[in-house]
Design goal:
single chain; eight-stranded mixed β-sheet; Rossmann fold; GMP Synthetase, Chain A, domain 3
């Protein structure tokens, strides 16, 4: 990415749009929208944000709503206006939102109508100037206001290094970090992926991913917009619905859990996949047994790739060529990947070390955390991913583990320290350790190991209920174990590998 270069992500997308009457999006219930609709609706959104509300380039727009076509037009309108899109998981609780909204300091929050009254005090405390509502069925205050605005808008001129999105990802300290993604970061990655995975205007992507996450928001949509393809738009993943909808698609992207769920249906097989040319998996490691079972059942070899919120996609198994189980393929064009030892020196092929990446896809830095940003980059500009990896003699990358201890359950990141802090604050708890255990469905399940302080009785359900009050459902431990003490090494560090070994067998 070259600083000073004019680039707006929406403008880059629009250059690849086909004729305005070409179909962009269809839903199972018959809703249908064209590329021309995307142009008109996003223009109305941009006019509403800039003219009606007076938002200025760089202002954040925080969005916590359910997936719908109108959410897509909102996203595109924010880009057109030169504003910063800040997606939030609808499952986040008020406690979690309190941090995000105070840290991001948005000028506008778009939320579900059912939460507006409850969030009023929080928004006032965070000094958020505007609140609008958007419901899954299209209702709420936002769209009537948008619909009154002109449907022509001159897309804002932005620089390649200006922010397009702010996406939060917690760290091991428990404090979420805002990841600053520029127009150039997202444009470069989308263009490479659309080409690398062979997207054309003849494709239809089955989109059942959430759009508060990089996978569904930037990877999936970027490939469609950069090729003029179509979207088959589902509000969420449902195995039975997805099985039926495969007849309308040529490409599906999903997390490993999606594929294990499809395989649970004994009737699912090659006959369901006749129209498909490509299945792609990411956001969590794809178990080799799932890779093999899917190929045996359907005749399709899932393409696995590797990325993260900070970088978009870094590596990918090939579209044409060998897709190797247990690997995430070679680096993508324009992306450099290396494995380094403890001293920072690159390691030869076949040795496990710290995985580092460099390229135009790598984020600008952490929001208002310059010291953390500096610590995560090397002197020569490589980003330390926090993952352990190995590169074989053919250039294929394999992920050996995660040094940052994140648990990936169903494709969603759960950061142990955040949950440990909630559990440790409970009466009767001395300390806790949160770990990920193997799970055939979710890839990993969240588990907590708790040490009572002896002052009161504790139950696993009580611990789970307490966490559920303060954190999104996907973060709640599926299992709670009790020990008299946590295992530690000579330096006093909790040995989570010992805990995983002990409780993983259960």
């Amino acid at each position: 990415m070259r600083a000073g270069r004019d680039l707006n992500l929406y403008a880059a997308y629009a250059q690849c749009f086909p004729a305005s009457d070409s179909v962009l999006l269809t839903t199972p219930c018959g809703e249908r929208h064209s590329y021309g609709d995307a142009e008109r609706y996003s223009a109305q959104v941009a006019n509403y944000l800039t003219v009606e509300l007076g938002l200025r380039p760089g202002d954040r727009v925080s969005v916590q709503v359910e997936k719908s076509p109108r959410l897509l037009w909102l996203f595109l309108g924010v880009l057109r206006a030169g504003l910063v899109f800040h997606p939030l998981n609808p499952a986040y609780t008020d406690t979690e939102l309190d941090f995000f909204l105070h840290d991001a300091q948005p000028s506008l929050l778009v939320c579900d109508s059912a939460r507006e009254a409850k969030l009023a005090a929080l928004c006032a405390d965070a000094a958020i100037g505007h609140v609008a509502t958007l419901d899954a069925d299209g209702g709420g205050s936002l769209w009537p206001a948008v619909a009154r605005c002109p449907d022509r808008f001159a897309t804002a001129r932005t620089q390649a290094d200006e922010l397009a999105a702010l996406v939060y990802s917690s760290g091991t300290t428990g404090r979420p970090k805002g990841i600053m993604l520029s127009h150039g970061n997202l444009e470069s990655n989308a263009r490479v992926l659309a080409r690398h995975w062979g997207f054309t205007a003849a494709d239809t992507l089955l989109h059942c991913l959430p759009v508060f996450h990089v996978h569904g928001l930037f990877v999936a949509l970027g490939c469609v917009f950069m090729s003029g393809a179509r979207l088959r738009w589902l509000p969420r993943f449902d195995a039975a619905v997805v099985r039926r909808e495969l007849a309308h698609a040529t490409v599906m992207m999903g997390v490993p859990t999606y594929y294990t769920r499809l395989l649970e249906d004994p009737q699912f097989g090659a006959q369901d996949c006749r129209q498909l040319r490509l299945f792609i998996s990411g956001s969590a490691p794809l178990p080799p047994e799932t890779f093999a079972a899917f190929r045996a059942r359907t005749g399709h070899t899932i393409l696995e790739r590797y990325g993260m919120t900070e970088t978009g996609m870094n590596t990918s198994n090939p579209l044409h060529g060998e897709r190797r189980a247990g690997t995430v393929g070679p680096p993508l064009p324009g992306v450099e990947v290396r494995v380094c030892g403890a001293g920072g020196a690159p390691l030869p092929a076949g040795e496990i070390g710290d995985l580092q990446v460099r390229g135009p896809n790598v984020f600008c830095g952490y929001w208002r955390l310059p010291e953390q940003t500096a610590a995560d980059f090397t002197a020569d500009g490589f980003f330390n991913t926090g993952d352990k990896g190995v590169i074989d003699a053919d250039g294929y990358v394999s992920i050996a583990g995660r040094s940052r201890d994140v648990v990936i359950s169903g494709g969603l990141n759960v950061y142990p320290r955040e949950i440990e802090l909630l559990i440790d604050a409970l009466p009767g708890v001395l300390e806790s350790a949160v770990i990920g255990l193997p799970d055939a469905d979710y890839g990993e399940r969240v588990a907590a190991v708790v040490v009572p302080d002896g002052t009161r009785e504790l139950s696993g359900e009580a611990v789970r209920a307490a966490v559920r009050e303060r954190a999104a459902g996907f973060k709640v431990p599926r299992q709670v174990f009790f020990l008299d003490a946590l295992p530690r090494n000579a330096m006093g560090k909790v040995q989570k590998a010992v805990l995983r070994g002990r409780f993983g067998e259960r």
